[in-house]
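Section 3.1: Structural characterization of target chains.
Under the original work plan, the team committed to producing a structural model for every single-chain target entering the pipeline before any wet-lab resources were allocated. The record below documents one such target. The sequence was received from the expression subgroup and is listed exactly as submitted; it comprises 132 residues.
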Amino acid sequence: MPIISTMKVFLVEDSIPIRQRLVEMIEADGANTVVGEADNYADAVSGIASNHPDIAIFDIKLASGNGIHALAEARRRDPLLLGIVMSNYATAQHRQASAEAGAAYFLDKSSDFEQIPQILCALAATPVKERT
């Protein structure tokens, strides 16, 4: 099974400061690249389709639309896409909906945000076939 040593990441987040912080975290070690960003459902789905990332990180609440729905649509189009959902709304209902949409991880922004580099590293070391 092939292993991807670097990950192409797409960000779906309506907060510019959070997106900027994510880019810094993701690209800090030079192993991963942010290939696109969106702040709403439509731009997320089209941006993911045109940029073909390995992984996309979704906030639930977007400028318009919902990150969980964007994840579900993006994975419908590309079942190999890995999704991470993060939110300040870390309820059981949101976790369940994210899992049903195909999220590999659900992160609480207030306590799990800093784990993203470690998660990307672990995912990069996982053979592609085992990621789905």
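The chain has one domain: 7-125.
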